[in-house]
Amino acid sequence: MGDVLEAGQEPLRHWLDDLQPDEPSVARFLIRLIPPQCLLERDVAIFGRKLLHIPPMCKINPLYEELMALRFRALCPLEEEASSIEEAEQS
Q1: Using CB atoms within 10 A as the burial measure, which of 27, 40, 45, 58 is most buried?
Q2: Beta strand 49-54 with 42-46: parallel, antiparallel or unpaired?
Q3: Residue-wise over 24-57: b if at least 16 C-beta within 10 A, else e?
Q4: Cα 55 to Cα 43: distance, rounded to the nearest angstrom
């Protein structure tokens, strides 16, 4: 998929890879902004019968992998925050 990117888009890919959302407020914002799954994937059904399945098209997006990696990095600080809150409540 990297071949699809033009030379002008390569800095955007590196910028996304370098983002480290360490603050919980920034991490929450990114998690709300980047969906966990492709929004285009759908099952079309009429009267409860599935007529067709529209496959996910997200992998066509040349920045898909970088966005999913960024979302994962945003989840990590929130998990650490939740763990520390849980430990404090148990003490």
Answers
A1: 27
A2: antiparallel
A3: eeebbebbeeeeeebeeeeeeeeeeeeeeeeeee
A4: 9
**What stretch of H or E contains 20?**
none
- Per residue in 34-59, pLDDT tens? 988 877 778 888 998 999 888 777 87
Domain boundaries, the chain: 20-90
d(CA 79, CA 4): 34
Instruction: Give, for all 91 residues of the chain, the pLDDT tens digit.
Output: 445 556 667 888 999 999 999 888 899 999 999 988 877 778 888 998 999 888 777 878 888 889 999 999 999 888 777 777 766 777 7
**CB contact at 8 A, 31 and 78:** yes
